[in-house]
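Lab notebook, bench 4. Still working through the backlog of constructs that have no structural model yet. Next entry is a single chain of 391 residues. Request: give me the structure tokens for it.
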Amino acid sequence: MAAQRVNGPRLTGSVTKPTWRDGLDPRRVGWIRPLVIFVPISTALYFSRASATWQFVTACLAILPLAGLMGEATERLAERLGPGVGGLLNATFGNAAELIIALFALFRGLDEMVKASITGSIIGNLLLVLGASILAGGIKYPTQRFNKTAAGVGGTLMVLAAIGMLVPALFHGLVDLSKSGVKNLEHKLSVSVCLVLLATYALNLVFSLVTHKYLYNPKGEDCDLEEETGGVSWGVRRASAVLAGATVLVAFMSEVLVSAVHEAGLAMGLSEIFMGVIVVAIIGNAAEHSTAILMARKNQMDLAVGIALGSALQIALFVAPVLVFASYLRQRPMDLRFSTLEVVAVILSVMIARMVAEDGESNWLEGAMLLMIYAILGLAFFFLPAASHAL
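Model written out:
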């Protein structure tokens, strides 16, 4: 998404996240901090070989504050290192928690859950996050406005990402799978599509950090970091230490979560694809979900829309290709072929999100409709038979 100054804070773009300079205060998402107590609880349950369900639940709760800390440390480093390096840092670590969880699932051979978590992150940001933000803000303000040009650019990029998911699925349905070498062609197509997605992501980085960086860092917006954060300033060392520590703990909690997800799903009567699309996706994005809603409640819709579309784009254009390439480090690589329901869900989400954003204004009913669509898709994944996942 392009960022322009329009009656409020600047929109941070499809490859970067809103910074503390944009009005975000770490105390506003402090409600998840106490959940850090679940880190030692989950660790104890893991080593004592307790119930898989309890391991899974406590690991999910432990990841919430850790993901929030990773995001906060990344933003603090971005502020200290300047707009260029900071923007690149945000682009790289913006969805680090989701990527780490997916990597652990990938190397345990849970390909369907990995793909489901990608789908879930995309539709979750476009429907759940955007819908909840619009609804929360719309209850307080009859009509809220945001930069429709910026939202339109983000929506167009999401259409490209949706095509990247659709083409491998169409190829799979059109070719004769009984012929030798067809599966190899599917993997080659997936790799080629991933290269195109990464190239698009790189071009967007060049756009936001080089050729049009003035859109993301307008003159006159610089201000004192300590003043905006209530006098609390993080140095590079402290922010780096917090980021490193939180990353290590997220990695360990991801191992606990992934190791228990299958048994926990069976115990709770939930399929692997539902766990990936709904549960894991929500856990990985919870910190920024709450931030987007809070910004909408403050009538800062540029920020709320930027968080929702920006996170969805980063998952589709960066995280998904990285996971495909990472799968070549194991014996059986993963392709980019999603199930029919996953592809349809993403396409519908992109269409409705673009329709809501194209006029540059929103109201509470539009937010409610986005949430209803998310609920319908969630029900479809809940009732989807296991044998249908690969269709």
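Notes after review: The two ends are 33 Å apart (CA to CA). The chain has one domain: 20-388. Flag for follow-up if needed.
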